[in-house]
Every structure is written in C-alpha cells, then in structure tokens.
DNA sequence: ACCTGAACACCGTTCAAGT
DNA sequence: ACCTGAACACCGTTCAAGT
C-alpha cells in the first residue's frame, strides 16, 4: 500500500454513477428485457462464474434487492437468458422442404449457441415450454417441418427430444479439454482405448467434438429418416 | 420457545458423538474411500442441494476443514463420486459378442445411473479420463467391444462420444416434469407442436423419456452400425 | 501428517422503510 | 409499485495452532 487516500478505493474506475435515493422512482428503471440483456452482456464478459445477482445489479446501477421486483430468483434470470438465446437458433430451413438439411442447420446452430452457455443446459432440459415463449416457437417450427416431411404424428416429439438430448450432451463435449482422452500412466492397461485415441489423433484435422457431432447427427438422420412415410 | 434449557438445542438427536480434540489423531479418521461413500450416502438422503462440505463433514464426524487434507475441493469430491458410480454401469455384454445388444445394455444402464445424478454430468462431460480410473476402465471395455465388432479404429472414439452425448442429454430428460410440453395459453399459436404432443399423450403407456431414448438409441445403432466392416 | 476452531470473502434472498 | 440499505442464513475454503 502506497499513498492511499482516506477515501475507500473504487475498483471500478473513477466514479460509479451515484445511485438514486430510496423510494419508488418516477419511472421504473428495471424491466425483464433490460435485465435479460444486461445478464447476457455480463455473462459474455465475466462468464457464469462472474454472473452473480450482485454483479448483475451493479451493471444496472441498482441494489441487488431491486432485481426481485422483476424476477423471483436467479434461476428466473437464467430462464430469461435461455429463452432469448433460443431465438438465435436457426430454424429457417424447415420451411424450405429438405428435412435432412433443415435438421442439420438446426442442430449445428443449436449446439453452437449453447456450447457457450452450458450452465443453462440443466435449466433448458427440464423447463416447461409454457415458461419460454421463444423456445416454444422453435418447437413449433421444428414440429411443422417434421410433419411436412412425413413423420407419423406420435413420433415427432420423441424424435425431436432425442435429437435435442444429443445436442445438449454434445454442447458439453465442445467445452472438453484437449487432453480429455489422455490415459496418462494407465495407457498400458487400456490398449484398445489408447489405440483408438491414437488413431483418431493421427487423422487430426477437424476438432474431435465436431467429428463426433457430425457422426452422431448423421447416424440419427439416417436412423430417424427411415420413419418417414413421405 | 418453551422451557429452553441453557444448553444449545441439538437438532440431530440426543447427542452427536463428541468430537476429538485438536491435533493429529493416532490413526487418520478420513480417507478418499470413506469420503466417497459418505458423499454418496448423503446425496442419496439429502439430494445435491443438501450436499455441502459442512453436511458431509458432519456425517463423518469431523470439522469441514478436515476434508481438505484428502480432497482439494468440493468438485474433487464430485469427481470421486462420479467415478464410483461409473462402476455400476453395465459393460459386461461387450464381451459376449452381439454389438447392438451390448450397446443397448450399456446405454440404458449408463442413462439410468446418471439420471439420478444429473448434477454430475457437467463434471463427467469434461473430465480427463486420467482423473477417473473406473471411467477409463469402462471406456476400455467399450472400445474393445467396438473394435471386435469391426469398427474402423479412427471412428471408435467419435462413435462412443456421440452415444455418450446422447446419454447425458437423455439423463436430464428423465428428470423433466410431466407437463414440460404443455403449451398452456400459447397452444392456439403452436398447432403442429400441440397436435404432436397430443398424439403422443394418446399413446401414453410408456414414459415419454423412455420412448425418446429408445427411438434415439435405435436410430444411432442403425446409423452407426453401418460403419462396421465385420 | 492430519485434526480443530476461527476467520474470510463471498453467496442468494428477505424485508422494513421510503417515495 | 418499485426503489434502498441492512440483515439473514448460509456457502466453500484457508490457515494458525495443536498433537
């Protein structure tokens, strides 16, 4: 410590804007849209570790407790973020007609969006669609595409769920470290696995997560495509 | 408050065994195996919400800080639990010969084990195999089965990763609430999706998560099986 | 080396008080 | 209705002191 002034140090620059005084402001300063975009921005800058209710409040220049007038919990904020991100998933190709290519476009973009947001996956995976309007809109577009492609009605939801499950798991795989399959000192006792890892590494142009995703997705397309009547 | 004694109330019964006094005990009271099985038991009783380092220490009758002589973090405990659980995944059928049936047995048991432990999925999905010996042993058994079934070496790891990604996503799906696909007030604006959900519900014998898992797994088996040379 | 006990630096959330 | 500020009931983790 050298030459500290008597004023407490402000780690966020020369002067955080002074907060308003207590009491209801003339116009509300917060709403769900503002909270959602501030959350998305904060997550982008600080990651999910840095995403706390206190940090979110700071970027919005309010007290943490003010957030609870607009959301009921931190999980609620994550739901808003999740639904917003879903609008970036590409479902446009389902209108065009080629079912296989539509699923490809959808699945790759879906994985790419959420591979940067894996902490949301436990939230999405069990969230009632009624709580996420944009997510519901995505399902409508995808279901319509499956229906037009000739899928029997009772197989449409299971097929979508199956592909989605594959996408969620694959989104985690994107974030795996490069050495995830390094057997280390155990290599000698795992000859088949070690050999397979070795042979994959020798190919080694594309990212392993992309190779696995393409392989699984094309297998699902082939297997599920057989269900179509059209 | 009625008739409180001067002694502080003990919420855990008449008398928690008195702790030992400070200083190194004659024999160590903790080890990784004991921590792992206590953790598994605690998770079974209190769920992952109730699984805290303090609660874990209490079941082991030690101070929370004592745990850090044997593990470096809470995540470390989760890794130990994850690896232990993996030994309950059934890989025995890979020795028998029928590749399709072996993958079925493996995948269903893998999903069933971790559907009760979804908070471990973010841990498993990115954990280097070198840090989890039982998990590595599972990969060895599975790789050997794929190899014997005639898979080209460089496709074995991607195929396993793809199936595993599907399993992880499907494990979450098992925990989804029954009303997850209820469109609520939006039903009118999502006709294709709502109709598909309706038709699935009319079938309605098997659990939706099981229907989706079977459909996806069989599609993967069909699609991936085509890669075999044998 | 391996315990205890106290302390640290956080969390998310609640709630009275203010306008 | 919608803010502030203080408080609550926790967290995981560190570390000096003890044997």
Structure, described:
Two copies of one chain form a homodimer. Chain A is mostly helical. Helices cover 54% and strands 0% of the residues of chain A. Among the domains of chain A are: 29-72, Homeodomain-like (Arc Repressor Mutant, subunit A), CATH 1.10.10.60; 88-177 and 207-229, Tetracycline Repressor, domain 2. Residues 1-15 of chain A have low confidence and may be disordered. Chains A and B meet through α6, α7, α8 and α9 of A and α6, α7, α8 and α9 of B. The structure holds a DNA duplex (19 and 19 nucleotides).
Secondary-structure map with pairings?
The structure is a homodimer of 230-residue chains.
Chain A: H1 32-46, H2 53-59, H3 74-86, H4 99-115, H5 121-124, H6 133-148, H7 153-174, H8 191-203, H9 208-225
Chain A binds a DNA duplex (19 and 19 nucleotides) through loops.
The count of helical stretches of chain A stands at 9
Report the oligomer.
homodimer
Q: Termini separation of chain A (Å)?
A: 75 Å
Highest CATH level, the class of the domain at 88-177 and 207-229 in chain A: Mainly Alpha
Rg estimate of chain A, integer Å: 23 Å
Order of helices and strands of chain A: HHHHHHHHH
CATH architectural label of the domain at 88-177 and 207-229 in chain A: Orthogonal Bundle
Largest interface: A-B, 77 and 77 residues
Overall 3D shape of chain A? flat
Structural class of chain A: mainly alpha
Largest sheet of chain A: none
Strand content of chain A: under 5%
Mean pLDDT of chain A: 92
In CATH terms, what is the fold-level topology of the domain at 88-177 and 207-229 in chain A?
Answer: Tetracycline Repressor, domain 2
């Amino acid at each position: 410590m050298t030459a500290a002034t008597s004023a407490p140090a402000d780690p966020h620059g020369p002067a955080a804007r002074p907060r308003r005084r207590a009491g209801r402001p003339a116009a509300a300063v917060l709403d769900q849209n503002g909270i959602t975009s501030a959350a998305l921005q904060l997550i982008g800058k600080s990651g999910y570790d840095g995403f706390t209710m206190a940090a979110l409040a700071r970027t919005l220049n309010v007290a943490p407790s003010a957030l609870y007038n607009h959301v009921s919990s931190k999980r609620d904020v994550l739901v808003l973020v999740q639904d917003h991100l879903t609008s970036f998933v590409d479902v446009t190709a389902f209108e065009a007609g080629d079912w296989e290519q539509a699923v490809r476009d959808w699945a790759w973009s879906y994985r790419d969006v959420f591979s940067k947001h894996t902490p949301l996956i436990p939230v999405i995976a069990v969230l009632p669609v009624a709580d996420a309007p944009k997510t519901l809109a995505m399902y409508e577009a995808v279901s319509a595409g499956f229906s037009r492609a000739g899928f029997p009605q009772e197989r449409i939801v299971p097929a979508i769920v199956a592909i989605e499950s594959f996408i969620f798991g694959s989104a985690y795989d994107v974030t795996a470290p490069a050495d995830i399959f390094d057997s280390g000192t155990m290599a000698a006792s795992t000859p088949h696995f070690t050999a397979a890892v070795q042979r994959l590494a020798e190919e080694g142009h594309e990212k392993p997560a992309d190779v696995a995703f393409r392989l699984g997705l094309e297998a699902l397309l082939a297997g599920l495509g057989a269900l179509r009547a059209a």
